[in-house]
Amino acid sequence: MNKYLSAVFLFIIFLGIYYFGSFSKIPFADCVGFVLSAEKGIWETTATATSHFLYINTVIFIKNLAGNNAIEASRFLVVFSGAATVSVVYLAVKSISKTEWASLTAAFVFGFSFTFWRNAEIVEVYTYNSLWVSLFFFSVIKSFTEKKKMYIPLSGLFLGVSLWVHIQNILLIPALLVFLFYFRIEKKYTAAALLIFAILFGFLFILNISQGLPFTSPYSSDQGTWVEDSLKKSMIQYVKDFFQSLVYLIYNFNIFTFFGGAGIVYLYKTNRKMFFVFATGAVCVYGFSTFYAVSDNYVFFLPFNIIFALSIGYGLSSAKYAHLRKFSWVCLLIPAGYFLLFKAIFLTEKGKEFHTFKEYKGGLNYYTLPWMNNNAGILEFTIDKKKAPEPIEWMTISAVEYIKLLKSKGYTEEQIRKL
Asked: Which helix (H) or strand (E) holds 407?
């Protein structure tokens, strides 16, 4: 009972953190496109790589149910999903480690990790996606640690649903198959998991074909050739990508990166089957995210980051680190670490130059601090016809359309600037 009480407290704490740090104005990047789709209120009827069928339709459902605008409906879903994911991470670590302090520490470390925290503060699909992925991992762990057979088909359900949020989760199919292989003796439950997953996966194709889209549409897009471009890089670029991925990892998990590595080794020694399930998923997601040819590839690491957070908790639960319990409060200083790094970079000439170049969307604040309150807004930028030192037409096109939509609903330019 206590573990569920702790999960509730974690949810409340991070709900407050994410809500009060949430964006003041619609940020740059894909945010305005998501809000525009939800504000139109037209149900998404295709599930392509960029339509995010379940995310958009869930926001529209919340918007219609609560009677508010798309901005607040999106904020609610993103913040709620972010806080809930932190709680699920805690419960998953607690199930495998049986150690309260290590589970709480891992939850705080993940909740404060830059990539996840940032995405809990903006209008994006990734915290909602993380919730479904974390439930998949939770079901896998429960199946191993508590031998509760009902979690086996639940694993197929949660991973299947997650594909309707973000198709990137097909990278976790190998992990699901390895998991079901280890439980093959439970034929009824593994068959149910496969059937549920196959139905949910298959309906992606059926839906799109019924809308006149090609068979490959669930995992392809006409908006770019990112996968193809990922295979055309030079060897030097692949090496740079790999080292950049390590920077992402360390920036997300700071000193706790060490315990993530320790947890990997510890899991290999104590539960090799579970190790291979998570290792399969981790390698697929990390490899793809590292070399994926998009400028914001850091967000694609999130499923891996959840796995790594679980590993941090398991590593801390090892008897050799029991003496660190009294220092576990250090994880609460992670936000201060972001702020101090921001200040340190700002003192350098390169930092000042970067801040000036990116000032149109927040400068160094945008890139080093996860919270987004008092941020620069894309709508204000577009209305004032400001110019960016780099191409951002793909953002402003949606902003212009959204501004027109708001004006048709009676909003003035001064009111829109504040959104």
From this structure: helix 393-408
Tell me the residue type at 184.
Answer: R
pLDDT of residue 222: 62
Spans of the chain below 70 pLDDT: 1, 221-232, 293
Query: Tokens at residue 72, please?
Result: 């607040």
Got the DSSP string for 214-274?
-TTGGG--SS--HHHHHTS--HHHHHHHHHHHHHHHHHHHGGGHHHHHHHHHHHHHH-HHH
**Are 172 and 159 in contact, with CB atoms under 8 Å apart?**
yes
Residues 6+ apart with CB under 8 A from 269: none
In this structure, are residues 369 and 3 in contact, taking their beta carbons and an 8 Å threshold? Answer: no
**What contacts 24+ positions apart, CB below 8 Å, involve 390-393?**
392/28
Check residue 127 and give its pLDDT.
96
5 contacts: CB under 8 Å, gap ≥ 6: none
Supply the pTM of this predicted model.
0.95
Please provide the size of the chain in residues.
Answer: 419
Please, which residues have CB within 8 angstroms of residue 113's CB and are 6 or more apart in sequence? 252, 253, 305, 309
243-284 pLDDT, tens digit per residue, is 888 999 999 999 999 999 999 999 999 999 999 999 999 999
For 290-334, write each residue's pLDDT tens digit.
887 677 788 889 999 999 999 999 999 988 888 888 888 999 999
Q: Tell me which residue of 157, 118, 125 sits closest to 22, measured CA to CA.
A: 118
Instruction: Provide DSSP, 27-91.
Output: -STTHHHHHHHHHHTPPP----TTT-HHHHHHHHHHHHHHT--HHHHHHHHHHHHHHHHHHHHHH
Residue 155 contacts residue 140 (beta carbons within 8 Å): yes
Q: How far is CA 141 from the centre of its chain?
A: 20
Given a contact cutoff of 8 angstroms between Cβ atoms, the answer to whether 160 and 196 are in contact is yes
Q: What is the pLDDT of residue 19?
A: 96
What is the Cα–Cα distance from 134 to 144, expressed in whole angstroms?
A: 16
Helix axes 302-316, 126-145, angle to 10 degrees: 40
